[in-house]
Amino acid sequence: MSYGSRTIIDKIWDAHVVATREDGQSLIWVDRHLLHEGSFHAFDQLRRRGARIARPDLTFGVADHYVPTRNRGSIAPEIRRMVEQLEENAREHGVTLFGLDDPRQGIVHVTVPAQGLTLPGNVMVCGDSHTSTHGAFGAYAFGIGASEVAHVMMTQTIWQKRPKRMRVRVDGALPPGSTAKDVALTLIARIGADGAQGHAVEYAGSVIRGLSMEGRLTLCNLSIESGGRLGLIAPDDTTFAYLDGRPYAPKGDAFARAVEDWRALASDDDAAFDREIVMEGSDIVPTVTWGTSPEHALPIDARVPDPDLIDDPAKAQTVRDALAYMGIAPGTALGDIRVDRVFIGSCTNSRIEDLREAAAVLADRRAVVPGLVSPGSAAVKRQAEEEGLDRIFRDAGLEWADSGCSMCVGMNGDIVPPGERCASTTNRNFKGRQGPGARTHLMSPAMAAAAAVTGRLADMRPLIAGRTK
Amino acid sequence: MTPFTTLESPACPLPLANVDTDQIIPARFMKRPRSEGYGAFLMHDLRGEPGNAAAVLDDAAFEGAQVLIARRNFGSGSSREAAVYALADYGFRCIAAPSFGDIFASNAVKNGVVPARISEADAEALLSDPGVLAGGRIVVDLPAQLLRVGNKQFAFEIEPVWKTQLVNGWDDIDMTRSYAAAIDDFAAADSKRRPWAVPAA
Ligand code: SF4
Q1: What pTM did the predictor assign?
Q2: Domains along chain A?
Q3: Among A151, A156, A355, A373, which residue has the least CB neighbours within 10 Å?
Q4: How far is A17 from chain B (nearest CA, A)?
C-alpha cells in the first residue's frame, strides 16, 4: 500500500497487488476476464498444459468478432466453427457465454457494461485492445495478448508494471454537434498515435463530467488509439445511476456499500500525474480522419496536408504514403472528398445514443450512397426498434443488421471493397482494416449520417440545425 | 521458451512508421490454428500493394534476416498475438524501432522476440546504413543491449524484466505458480474488503 495523495490509477492498482517482485513487476488480481471467439489460441495453450480456468465465475464469453450481421441462417462453415469452438470451450470450463442466439449477445465492449458487469474499481482484461472502453466506469481495463489470456485463465492474475500516469483535462463545454468521438480524435491528432504509450490515462474536467455513460464509453474506447495502456474516468452520480438495477450489478445494501467505496476512488486533489494535457472544450469541432492512422485527424472544414510543405522527410513520406493509399490529392478540402459507403457500428459508436444521433440527421432524408447500420448489441437493436430508429435508417436506404464486429474488422463479407471509401464510426483507419485496399474515414455517428445524405465528407451541423434531438 | 542472448543475421530495413498489427497480419488469416504456421501471412496485404512498401521482406538480399528495423509506433493497434506469431514464424527474433505498441511489445516477449527500442536518429541511421542495405550482418547482443553493424554500434532499451525473462527463457505461468498461496490469500481477503466486486446475478 502506498500512502498520501494518490490518483484513481494508483488507488485501483494498490487494491489489486497480490505480490511485487524485486524487479518491480507486480502480480495483479483480475476481477473480470472477457473472452471472445479469438480466445481459441489461449484455450489451446490451456489444453496443452492440461489446465483449467481458475475462476469461471469471473470469466464471461461473448460471440462478437466472427458472428455474421446478416443472413444468420446460412453461416459459412469456417465461421460457424469459430462460434461453436467458443461455445464448446465455454461449456467445458463452466464459463457464462452470451452466444450467438442469446438475447444478451453483442459486441463485448457494448453488452458487458450494459449487463452491469463492468464496475468502478474493477481490474478487467480481454484479448482485445479496446478493452479500455470499460474505463468509462472507473474500471482499470486493458487489452492483452493470447499468452496473457491463458495466464489469466489459469491464475486469475496478470504480471504488470505500474504504469506512468497521465491526465487529460478537457475544460469548458463542447459546442453543439461535437461529441466524445471528436474529443478523442482531436486528442489523438494532438499527441499522436503513440502519444500515451506506457501510460494509464485519466480523463477529467468539466467536459468529461458532462458526458453521458455512452459518451464516456466512446472516449475510453479510443484510449488505445493514442497508445494508452488504458483510459478511465472517475465514477460519479452519472455512473451510479447507470449501474443501478443492471442485471449483474450489486443490489440493495451491497449497492449502497459499493457506491460509498466507489466515491473514494476519485483522484485526490493534490495527486501528481507524470504528464498532463489540457484541452479547451470550445475548440473541439466535428472531426474526421483523412489518412491511415487515427492521428491523421482534422476538423471537417480543414484541408488535408501537403507533404511538399513538410520539412521532416520521414514525416513527409508518411503523409505522402497515406494520401496515396487513400487516393487523395495533397491539399484537398475534406468537404470535397466523396465517399462510396457508410458504416455505423463497432464498439466505439453503436450504442443507443449513437444511433439516435445518426437518426436525427437521417430522418426524412435519403442516403445517396449505400450503408450498413449494425447496432452494438441485440438489446440495443431491440431498443432502437422500439424507438422506430430502424425505420429511419431503412427509409433512408441504409441496411439495418444484427450486432457484431462486422465492418470494423471486415468479417463475413462486411467489407469495404478495394479502393472504395467508407465514412465509418469505427476506431481504426489502418490500411486494409475494413478489407484489402479499403479506405476508411473515422467520424462520429452524426457525421457518418451527414456523409450518407451528401455523398461526401460533410459537416453535420447545418443538417441538424432546427431539428430537435 | 528458448533463451535469447545474441544473434547474428542480416537485418531487414522496413522504412515505415505506425505499422499496426492489422498490417502485420490481416484479421482474415487468424482463424487458423498456430500449428499451421503464420509466417506466410506476414504483412500479406502490404506486400501485395502497388509500390510494395514491404518489398524488403521478399528481397533475396535479406534472406534469413532475424532482425527487423522499422520506424516509430511499430505494432500499434489490435492486441492480436497472431502479429507476433507471423513475425516469429517468418524468422524474426528481434524488432528494432523507436517505439512499440504496449500490447505488442509484451506479446513479443512472451514469444521470445526482442522489442529493442532505439532512438529515432539511430533508426534512420540503420535504415540507410550501406551495410544493412547490402544485406550485411547485424549482431543483436541482448545482455549488452547493443546492435552492432560493421564497426558501428547502437544502444537499445528494453524493460529490465523483459530482458531477464528473454535471457533466461522464463515462462510466466511457471513463475506465477510459485505464488499460488499468495493468490489464494489475496482472494480471501479481497472478498471481505470488496464484497460487491463479484458479479451479482
Ligand atoms: S467492434 Fe472492432 S474494435 Fe470493437 S471489439 Fe469488435 S473488432 Fe474490436
Answers
A1: 0.95
A2: 8-275 (3.30.499.10), 287-464 (3.30.499.10)
A3: A156
A4: 8
